[in-house]
Amino acid sequence: MEDDHKNGVDLERSLTVLYATQTGNAQDLAESLARRAIRQHFTAQCLSMEDYSPVPFFAPKVRADWPTGRLV
Fold first, then answer.
1. Which residues of the chain have pLDDT under 50?
2. Own/partner pairs for 16-21, CB < 8 Å, 24+ apart?
3. What are the phi and psi torsion angles at 48 (to 5°)?
4. Which of 1, 9, 52, 72 is least surrounded, with the fewest CB atoms within 10 Å of its CB?
5. Domain residue extents for the chain
6. How much is the pLDDT for 7?
7. Entry pTM
């Protein structure tokens, strides 16, 4: 369970709400959702897709060699 904590944040109860908007409606909705999550004792953040870097979450842990498909 110790691995579930990063910088004092309970990762099981954390939420990142991403939005992309031209008119501001999606941002309003995303901020509302983040506030609701905080009221439910989540650690929440609201970010524009422009400001978000998915690399830490989508970095491959296992890589397959192409075209053989063998794990590297």
1. 1-4
2. 16/44, 16/45, 16/46, 16/47, 16/52, 17/44, 17/45, 17/46, 17/47, 18/47, 18/48, 18/49, 18/52, 19/46, 19/47, 19/48, 19/49, 20/48, 20/49, 20/50, 21/48
3. -70, 150
4. 1
5. 2-58
6. 58
7. 0.60
